Amino acid sequence: MKIALIGCGTVGRGLLELINEKQLILTKKYNLDPIVSAISDPVVGSVYNEGGLDLNKILSLLETDNNIKNYSNGITGWDSLKTIKESNADVIVEATPTNLETGEPGLTHIRTALKSGKDVATTNKGPIALAYHELKALTLNNRCELRFEGTVLAGTPALNLALLPLAGIEIKEVRGIVNGTTNYILTRMESGMSYDEALREAQEKGYAEAKPDADVKGWDALAKIIIIANVLMGGNLKVVDVEREGIDGISKEDVEKALGNNKHWKLIARAWRGDGEIKASVSPKELSEDDPLARIMGVTNAINFTTDVLREVTISGPGAGKRETGFALLSDLIDINRFKEG
Amino acid sequence: MKIALIGCGTVGRGLLELINEKQLILTKKYNLDPIVSAISDPVVGSVYNEGGLDLNKILSLLETDNNIKNYSNGITGWDSLKTIKESNADVIVEATPTNLETGEPGLTHIRTALKSGKDVATTNKGPIALAYHELKALTLNNRCELRFEGTVLAGTPALNLALLPLAGIEIKEVRGIVNGTTNYILTRMESGMSYDEALREAQEKGYAEAKPDADVKGWDALAKIIIIANVLMGGNLKVVDVEREGIDGISKEDVEKALGNNKHWKLIARAWRGDGEIKASVSPKELSEDDPLARIMGVTNAINFTTDVLREVTISGPGAGKRETGFALLSDLIDINRFKEG
To answer: Is B144 part of a structural domain of the chain?
Structure first.
């Protein structure tokens, strides 16, 4: 399997590390021999070698220089689209940052790859939240695969849990804690902090950005619940269809009062069937102790599926992180390989 | 896909119902057209029709007569081995009862099927707990597939969670609440019942058998943790290798005392790496509130995986039931089909 990595930020580097470390087990256990033949990133640099790049060298350059401009053994300077179209990669790993308004540049990357008949694995929420049905049709027309486990809950199986071992189930409702930053803030508020104090601590720990709106106002959770609703429940939701309320209106007093009643405030992303169509919302909810999501604390994420045959199934695990999200890409690559060689 | 069902008890009937109800979605969404061409059961009866059995008719006979002896359109009287060897089935569904001492009759059924190059899906814990590595080798030699999701946690993805979306992960430790009966009893004891009262209630509700030893003494959990350890962690454990302690020594006072310390008694099946080998045990443990297994109540089951990249991932859901376990077989059939047509 020859891979081109488009976007070499935190997540892309996480994937490179895992491929490098797990090479033996991938070959032995999964009959997968991943060769990264191209990396293209506007900041880090671009290099292509049809025989494969030396990952030890690449990772060491990233460590020391924070770029790969001194990697000499290959063609340099190809931009993302040239890399997607002209490299020998069978699989494009798209790991550029999410843009929820346009989906770009990821959307053009993925469209271009699929139209060239190349498989795609991505962690970019924008293209999947905005254009899943279009991209799915492209995979069918061009007989190629699109995987995107890492767009929801990082490497903790959420989408692929529903698509693979739960294949055949009907999902009636999904409720999730899908944003670690807000869950961390709400957890810290349960120990007596104000919203502002908890936000500041989350920023100091690197869980929240300096401009925290994407998390605290629910935009990140909104992108994820659209993906869940459209991919797993057959919805056709757009950003404007989803009611959204963040956690920035939750006070220390709200949290204290809930705790006194054995309840916990959580930012819940929810998708359900109503009036013959799929609906979704993001809003803070008070959950009682017997709710399987009530005790999900800190940056841990969780999803609760209500189904026809199994009633409720809940999965929890990390929802962010360099290697945790890189692993989502690796598991997508393993599944593409398994599916193609079956 | 032509299927022979060997063993037509509760679980087999659950599968027949699901195939019958979900036919449309299976064809449309999973490109799977399952045709049950044979059923063989020493009590219910045996019938074979190479064109496929009428499931509506079969289910209606099972409902009214509790057997299929009045199903007239086919060859009757084939025993399980003749059905496995001489029917036109591509896939053998083995759903006979578990025997942890010999694995029979399931073990012979599965060996025979795999040696004939037929794929197998089973819910029978005996053969997998006793002979997984032998059966795995048979699948490799005969280029066929063996699936057994339903041997652990019924249809809640446990094994297939680890094997499919978590492919590529290293599992360092597994802890599970894998027996619903004992968890129900311990949950009811938290509301003040004695062990005997809670056991009696579980028996009245059909959760516990008249002779409850397989559950309360930990044998069922032992079979499941052997399967988990041998399949997911590369162990080679036999029944005698696993330390086992049931819940019948837990008193009302033990439970009360734990509750007073915000702890919960749970029967924990555990597998881990120690001294260079895989080990496993089944025993009651006091879990503190922040343990992801502490709040798993009633007949719900859960498994907590400690991994290299994702740290802890926990899944919970039903661990028993007619349709819940039948669904495990259905999801195995979907995966075999997906893998073979990839």
So the answer is: yes
